Amino acid sequence: MTGLPASVGVGFKPDHFTAIRNDARRVDFFEIHAENYMGAGGLPHAQLTALRDDYALSVHGVGLSIGGQRGLDADHLQRLKTVCDRYQPDSFSEHLAWSSHGAEYLNDLLPLPYTQETLQTICDHINQVQEVLGRKMLLENPSTYVLFEQSTISETDFLKAIVQRTGCGLLLDVNNVFVSCTNHGQDPYDYIDAFPLASVGEIHLGGHSTEELPSGPLLIDAHGSPVADPVWSLFAHVIGQTGALPTLVEWDNDLPDWPILAAEARAAADILAQGGARLDLAS
């Protein structure tokens, strides 16, 4: 599915560069956000070039607006191609979301209704991305906080249809599953059991936060804390069905010291090594 090793990686943060270079090898791959490397040179490229010599690399886009109604931004897509051509990543992924309106780009990954119309738009965009990049991409399931009355297709069936029409793979974000299902009063294990797991090329894990609202708690995909126990258990459930897959620990906000992030990666590696065996704390 991808060239990534079926082991554990983390999101690369420049703050950790020296610790990574001085430490024993704690992870097998790193992921970067493509938009942070669209400049021509400088320290970011020097650091990433050094890491690329020793580690597998996953490039994760956040700005294509795959679900946007207007066409993809050709300039942005070309800059993305430049990054991928330069570093030849073992995997490229983007989000099932939109983040543009007209000529304006929004600093968020927004949900969309699951209809035949949006399905066609997204498939057209994915086909365009894969043609321009000359590579198969992975599409990530979103974290959501609202549901649309217009939706006529379940999220898992929507993703299945995208894979069938475009040949793309999927990035399964387990924390997003837990966040979305909890927010909507759904069972995350039922969601996983309906998910096209055979198309998954990479897994994401991350932390979430909770906001207390009058209607009850709302989970936020915040990427600023350790992976929660119920998410670890859901991850173990996935691995019990799929076997080991490339797994990334995301921690983008309130960045911890490198040993703390490395310990999260080691916990994920333990579950991979055990084939998903773990006490199911979510049941």
Question: In brief, what are we looking at here?
Answer:
This protein is 38% helix and 21% strand. It contains nine helices and twelve strands.
Q: What is the terminal-to-terminal distance?
A: 31 Å
Instruction: Kindly report the oligomeric state of this protein.
Output: single chain
Helix/strand-derived category reads alpha/beta
What gyration radius follows from the Cα positions, in whole Å?
18 Å
Name the average pLDDT.
Answer: 91
The total count of helices amounts to 9
Spatial order of strands in the largest sheet: 1-2-3-4-7-8-9-12
Topology (elements, then pairings):
Elements (H helix, E strand, L loop, with lengths): L7 E4 L5 H6 L6 E5 L9 H10 L3 E5 L13 H14 L3 E5 L2 E4 L2 E7 L5 H18 L4 E3 L14 H12 L2 E5 H10 L4 H7 L5 E7 L2 E5 L2 E5 L8 H14 L4 E4 L7 H16 L10
Parallel strand pairs: 1-2, 1-12, 2-3, 3-4, 4-7, 7-8, 8-9, 9-12
Antiparallel strand pairs: 5-6, 10-11
Helix pairs in contact: 4-5
List key phrases describing it.
283 residues; two-stranded antiparallel sheet; alpha/beta; 21% strand; disordered C terminus
